[in-house]
Amino acid sequence: MDIERAIAASLxxxxxxxEADSPADANAVAEAGPPGSTLDMAAPTYxxxxxxxxxxATPPRSRALAxxxxxxxxxxxxxxxxxPQVYVSHEKDFTHLVEKVAIETLAEEGRKIxxxxxxxxxxxxxxxxxVHNRCINALLQPTTWQPDSxxxxxxxxxxxxxxxxxxxxxxxxxxxxxxxxxxPIKVYGDIHGQFLDLMRLFARYKAPSDGEGGDIDxxxxxxxxxxxxxxAFSLETVCLLFSLKVKYPTQIHLIRGNHEDPTINAIYxxxxxxxxxxxxxxxxxxxCWNKFNRAFEWLPVGAVIEDKILCLHGGIGGSVxxxxxxxxxxxxxxxxQIPQTPFEQRITDLLWSDPSDNDSVPGVTANETRxxxxxxxxxxxxxxRVEEFLEKNSPLSMIIRAHECVMDGxxxxxxxxxxxVFSATDYCGHHKNAxxxxxxxxxxxxxxxLIYPVERMTTMWDPMVMQQxxxxxxxxxxxxxxxx
Length: 484
Prior knowledge:
Elements: H1 2-10, E1 15-16, E2 39-40, E3 85-90, E4 97-102, H2 131-139, H3 158-173, E5 178-181, E6 185-188, H4 195-205, E7 220-223, H5 234-247, E8 252-254, H6 262-265, H7 270-278, H8 288-296, E9 302-305, E10 309-311, H9 323-327, H10 342-352, E11 354-355, E12 364-366, E13 379-381, H11 383-392, E14 398-401, E15 410-413, E16 418-421, E17 435-440, E18 446-451, H12 463-468, H13 477-482
Parallel strand pairs: 1-18, 5-9, 6-7, 7-8, 10-14, 11-13, 14-16
Antiparallel strand pairs: 2-3, 3-4, 6-17, 9-10, 12-13, 15-16, 17-18
């Protein structure tokens, strides 16, 4: 670990597993209230402070009830609402305990609102109803999750998984092909069914929950595709991400990778995992495997953070020239295995292309690793393509992509104007690489946060897939040296 710490220390602004989080984390949101406050609310109107000196303190608001209001109208999904829970800090016993209580249990807060309308403008709580909540409660366990003792079982039935896919599909249909996102946000790369690595990242750098150790109240999350295949826990990974998408549709963002494609995930493990663990026949049109892939075909293929950072899975290849042309793509989106038209080539570039091996290789070149047959359809793009694309799509100034295993979990290219992020450690048990997420602060500073491989107590990868199809090797070592 001394060597790892030395490496981490040499990377300015990089947070490493085992070290304290960067002070930049505090930039996301100030969770504590004003000194002496005991109620932590998002936008308090009365702090409990009094004037000092001769001026009298402002008295509390009157307890008289207001006249009965007009009949209440439910709010549309995009309207401003008040949370049904508040956080209360108990400091008198010196434990600094904070608990979550229902808003209607407060003794005074609702006295001026008519009793028949006391819950007006309150966000509806989903409680524990719904398969998505059950899935989150069972799987979002960053410090304690362990694989099921039955490798052929899964916590949800096939019928429940099918319902989850239907719910997710409805959410995806309501959103754009290129998402418009805000900072602060955490960006994750490929997970590939290595669910334990996802839990380790959540445990070390906070999770998308509103409980202890969570930061969903102040943070968005973006996952750049390749949720499934190769790893042994693709179902856990994709079901948790789908469940989070259903629960937090405007804060959890999923975009499509090249493995979110039935032709690919039929070969690299996901179809067989669905067959074995859900006890289904994947070829059935209504199988969970088919429903997953129907949802995948509605995933966005890109996202733009604060008009400055373009996020996608693969790259821009030689055919992607503007965000506008990507935004107009229609869904459901099908991927041609051998693209025949400019439109099909654009999809292939978005999902499959890679940066060239280092900054000294310009233009569009062959991608021998992913295109061993030499069809010329899967390519690498040079730093000049990155510069040209960003200049044409001003005010964009950065591209974040996934798709390739990189040894430090992230890697810069094109003089730092493109970053590759990869979140699975020791990919498929072959490469001993670190995993990372990229934290985009409110001021758009990008802070990489790393974890390193650990000893595995159980097999994390599909052994049959590993034997038949070795993982794509990481980016060349020379590229890693040249990119810094």
